Amino acid sequence: PLADEIAFVERYLSIEKLRLGPRLQVEWLLDKSTPGALLPLLSLQPLVENAIYHGIEPAADGGIIEIHGEISGNKLAITVSNPAVRPRGPHQSGNRMAQDNVRQRLGAHFGDAATLTSGQQDGAYSATLTVPLIMP
């Protein structure tokens, strides 16, 4: 269930908040009907980890990670957004392995019915995973 994945992400975020302090802020906006929806394990955490690594760590003042989840028709969509910043000093741009792993995980569970899209717009980078809505 999504509620379990959220609990896992919250534990991860509590560790990162100890490390980053007030530089890391998180805003959760989830449709109240989403917690029971099924989502493959470790689908959301890598996206949040990327948001911290690419959006919060390189920013002098940190920033806000927004995690939005909503049900639309027979789909569940979860978007993780972070500030799009230019790294200060040495910072790897990444090899997209985390997103590729999430895509593979979604494909293994849902085939072509699930997607992971990402991109930058208006000073923010977002990754959105969309899966068929399955409620136990």
Could you explain how this protein is built, in words?
By secondary structure, this protein is an alpha+beta fold. The chain is built from 3 helices and 5 strands. The protein has helices at residues 2-20, 45-56, 97-110; strands at residues 24-30, 63-72, 75-83, 115-121, 124-132. It has a 5-stranded mixed sheet, covered by helices on one side. A hairpin with a 2-residue loop joins strand 4 (115-121) and strand 5. The chain is globular, with a radius of gyration of 15 Å. The N and C termini lie close together (8 Å). The mean pLDDT is 91.
Overall outline = globular
Structural class: alpha+beta
Strand content: 25-35%
Average pLDDT works out at: 91
Q: What's the SSE pattern?
A: HEHEEHEE
Distance between the termini: 8 Å
Quaternary structure = single chain
Largest sheet strand order? 1-2-3-5-4
Number of strand elements: 5
- Summed up, the helix count is 3
What are the segments in which pLDDT stays under 50 over at least 5 consecutive residues? none
**What summary fits the major beta sheet?**
5 strands, mixed
**Portion in helices:** 25-40%
Gyration radius, in Å: 15 Å
Write the layout of secondary structure elements.
Blueprint lengths: L1 H19 L3 E7 L14 H12 L6 E10 L2 E9 L13 H14 L4 E7 L2 E9 L4
Parallel strand pairs: 1-2
Antiparallel strand pairs: 2-3, 3-5, 4-5
